[in-house]
């Protein structure tokens, strides 16, 4: 159920599904750290492939994933890069360290090979993080997420908030639909017939009762938890944190390996012998790299400089 | 001598937010193994009393305590809620909120998790407790697909996790349909018998709880103990009507027949009740007496469904080939278990969803040509929880909202809002903030919301859910007035058998997406097949009829007709009195 949200409430049948919460949370955290720490395509592509394999191995329902991917692709990649072209076409130079112009509109607006490379690498990086989040969401039930986080050292009260939030999402969603229906009957227009401003105003009308009913529930939930001894001790055990499967030690070992590699990469290429720019590019040799402050390439800065006659 | 497990001595409690105490000078002893019913109308203090036992007072609700309340010898005002939770288990009214886990197993484990019990030791306990309540095959299930009754079972298994000695059930029947309610009462009885635990049930639905015996009934009123007696003694007394508690139907029937309640053994349990020969004769005479028939309604059809089918996206057929007609001015009960199709039918009528095949006519117009907004001017849908409908701060703005949204001219709007508020008895409160009024009044505001659009048909979704007898009576009198004086057609979506018996002319019964009956209420309630398919329960009138060797259908019919006569006589009386008494108030 609730496939639209890609939330998985019951553990699935595959190897990844069956791992303990801690293994999955640990893998996810290390994977995120690895993806965040680098702009190097030679690392990002393998990471992306690993995550894609994870997703495929769980045989998910692809429809909601594709929908989410398409939405993020259009808003972030397409729209974002068009804006980037207008605001800062020089990102290729600042991040990759060279500029081979292939098309030029005027002095300020042009496309270089490096600009396209920058966009490409960034797309791979975003897709890899998207895939890692999806893989994690598919594999982990909210309870496993909470217990795994707690095992990673996070205070259990914060972890319970996570699982409680997931517990209430479907209830809130159904409340929302009920309230919207009754509002529509009273004449609140939410279809395209009304202008965007009006629709926004009307949505606020729905939110008022929604928030109040949700707050009403909070008190009841808190009482129910108190009555069953929640918060009695400094620690608690987790029903969701089941015994290790055969694969848990293997995956944990591989995760530690990934952590080691990430640390090695950071120390080697960022601290000991820092690469002059963030983006490695196959056709830009290290010696040719030109280091330019990113501020200088901003369209507006160039424009101001131009005005002042610099 | 046995020590009481719970003991109140001259105990009073005042919430910090309130001026006056909610509990006054309570003296009460409850002994180990007893099964106690705490009875009382809303606001009588019965829930507060229980919150003093389980420690929510003073842990979550602060206030001033005088006197003493001990549980197993420990003073509750100083003991921690956690320590008390080892002794007292509470099953809350809102079992949905109590379900904090994301699976049945996890929820049962919740208190053990908090006790830091290793997972390996939890598993056998979860298994044992789940089978105790009959949920052993559902351990992996998520809460979203469980029925109210199943959630309650899980809640019971969950409080068993810490092996408590006292079990408190706060309004266990509130969220259940009649059949599930019966199962819950049976289950509570089993637990009380098999485990010997002390059981405290808080309820105002006396007849439903008495389906299984209780040892003692504590009647609460205005924060005091009004009575502490056995069920038989209570039923014989006049205390029930005095304190706004509905008496069992068979007792009402006995009173109508002029029976004396003294001398009948086992009065609280109809199955083993032994009538005195005199009473038996009186009852038989009463139920066979000739009576004029209930009058027929007009012939004008307001709503008609022909061959309507509907499936949700998931592909499961929600309704198939539904046919029914509703006449103007009828009061209809739409009955069926959850998921049987009654809400789907209501949504189809409102146009929120549209039929796959078939047609729905509303005053002769096919609704497929109408928008939801247009249908909203003909059909007013009042949701179960008024808080989900109220959006404005001031009552008159709330009622005027639908007219504002339709761009109605100011003077027309003023007049319609005034009419709607007057019809709902809210005109003098028109400038009050919505937050400041009671639940029953909020319900009226939501009806007034709809009334402003002047629809002909009202759909009321569980209008009396969670209401005590007094508020129930108030809401139903108001709805009946809309029917009587304004000629509105009223559809009730309900589980409440009392509501159906007392306030509707006809019942439309759904089961598994099919319409299985559309008939007079007394016929439906006398058909055991329909009763079980719709998850209803047999009313005590049915059992009474069998006991007396009478035909159940005509017995229920007699009762309904007699009751209507009594009601209309009372109504006439109040009208006459209010005419002759200057300043006399009508309710």
Strand order of the largest sheet of chain B: 6-7-8-3-9-10
- pLDDT < 50 stretches of chain B: 583-587
Q: Helix coverage percent of residues of chain B?
A: 40-55%
How much of the sequence lies in strands of chain A comes to under 5%
Structural notes for this entry:
By secondary structure, chain A is mainly alpha-helical. Chain A has 2 domains: 208 residues, no CATH class; 71 residues, no CATH class. Chain A is 68% helix and 2% strand. Chain A has 12 helices and 2 strands. Chain A has a two-stranded antiparallel sheet with strand order 1-2. Chain A is globular and about 70 Å long. With 587 residues, chain B is of the alpha/beta class. Chain B starts with 5 loop residues before the first strand and ends in a 7-residue tail after the last helix. Chain B is 40% helix and 21% strand. In chain B, strand 4 and strand 5 form a beta hairpin.
Which properties best describe this structure?
heterodimer, A: 310 residues, mainly alpha, two-stranded antiparallel sheet, globular, B: 587 residues, alpha/beta, six-stranded mixed sheet, 24 helices, 20 strands, 21% strand, disordered C terminus
